[in-house]
Amino acid sequence: MKTIQAYRFALDLTSRQERDVLAHAGAARVAHNWALAKVKAVMDQRAAERSYGVPEELLTPSLHWSLAGLRKAWNAAKPTVAPWWGEVSKEAFNTGLDALARGLKNWADSRKGVRAGRPVGFPRFKSRRRTTPSVRFTTGAIRVEPGRMHVVLPRLGRLKLHESARKLARRLDNGTARIMSATVRRDGGRWHVAFTVEVERAEHRPARPQSVVGVDVGIKHLAVLSTGELVDNPRHLVAAQQRMRSLGRALSRKTGPDRRTGRRASKRWERAAARLGRAHGRVANLRRDGLHKLTTRLAREHGTVVVEDLNVAGMLRNRRLARRIADAGFAEIRRQLAYKTGWNGGRLLVADRWYPSSKTCSGCGAVKTKLALSEREYECEACGLVLDRDRNAALNLAALAAEFDTAGSGPVAARGADQKTRPRGQVATKREPGTAPAGQTGTVLPRGRTIDRVLAKAH
Ligand SMILES: [Zn+2]
Question: How far is it, in rounded angstroms, from Cα 67 to Cα 69?
């Protein structure tokens, strides 16, 4: 099975190497901004000409928005725009032009309505201060040194790694991986290199192929499993977040830059900003680590993992919950589970957004009309069952898988069954405001025969 995977390692750059990388990142920005200005100028020119009644065929020819088109324009202009162009790798300019080509395409697709999700704005100029410095290499000498503590990149040469690249090197050595590109980027106040790698993965089976686990991604805990296990948030996360907050307050007490008055930031402000950046990075790392450990374990062990389709975009708009939810990384858990169950030969089932997993009794199947977020215990009026709210939801999710299988529906059967008329239940949904697609408002999908509609295979 061939997959595209990323391997990311922290770098220890010398100050000279850091200067080189920054020069490359700067060159990427120059090419991006030059091409964006050019695209805008041509658009304005054509609009003006049209308003004077110039016929279409006589308009200033429009610029090709593809990477190849932008590159051609850039190569023609670079001797005058950037006479120093020979000092950096051509990959640097390519990085900037590629980002612009993609930005333009996303904007155009979004306007035409071919792109899902939120509307995408027109690409903006990249500022030196606000852009994350990064450069991507797709060709030339990209390799890991035999000692596995250094990588070699075109122009930048031999860079020291902060951690061993043995996991990637092992795959490169036995021929199960091929590096497609390498990106050097500064995030969280530290330099990283990320390799995009095509990996040939061996077929795996989950340790317990018949096992089903329901995962309720929580606020209080990282997740609650239908097995009864509570998976806590990473231990140091809370401490790291507290430190991040206090550093944020410390920063706000210092003299920052002010664009209107042209005031420069104080040295103390700059040091505090760097400390805050590193604290941010640490929080992000801890969170990522916790999520990866959980999803790897679930995918290796269980044949079937069932999760809910949470409307993360809608929930993030809820400001009180937003922080916690963003932290728990709902969308990230699901993304990781999707590819990891694929790697391990298991499957991920995703319950419909409208399936009332929290409001349904896992004992008798009765559905409550109301369940406040503050109610941490589920109490069933029908059968008297009392248990933890999240555990109840996880059990319901796990039970869905069994129904999915007895209904005999694979993806194909599910698609056919989709056409049947669904019985309409009572009005009770777990709907986030403003997220209901037309026609689905105010109906609940009852348990039972509609299982094919409620569950979908994620891959
Ligand atoms: Zn009950």
Answer: 5
Ligand 1 centroid, distance to 386 Cα (angstroms): 9
* Residue 447 vs residues 175, 201, 400: alpha-carbon distances, Å: 49, 38, 9
Active site residue 388: no
Please confirm, yes or no, whether 229 is among the known catalytic residues: no
The confidence score (pLDDT) of residue 448 equals 42
Q: Which residues of the chain have pLDDT under 50?
A: 409-453
CA distances from 345 to 7, 181, 203, 204, 452 (A): 22, 28, 7, 6, 22
Reading the block at residue 325, the tokens are 């939810």
Do 386 and 377 contact (CB within 8 A), yes or no?
yes
CA–centroid distance, residue 367 to ligand 1 (Å): 8
| Prediction pTM value | 0.72
Check if 390 is active-site: yes
pLDDT on residue 412: 31
The rounded Å distance from CA 364 to ligand 1 centre is 4
3-state class (DSSP) for residue 424? coil
Separation between Cα atoms, residue 458 and residue 210, nearest integer Å = 18
Each residue of 158-212: pLDDT tens digit?
999 999 999 999 999 999 999 999 999 998 678 999 999 999 988 889 999 999 9
Dihedral, CA of residue 25, residue 27, residue 32 and residue 37, to nearest 10: 140
Give the closest residue to 25 by CA, choosing from 123, 137, 159, 113: 137
Tokens representing 111 are 């306007």
Taking alpha carbons only, the member of 433, 423, 443, 421 closest to residue 356 is: 443
Distance between Cα 458 and ligand 1 center (Å)? 29
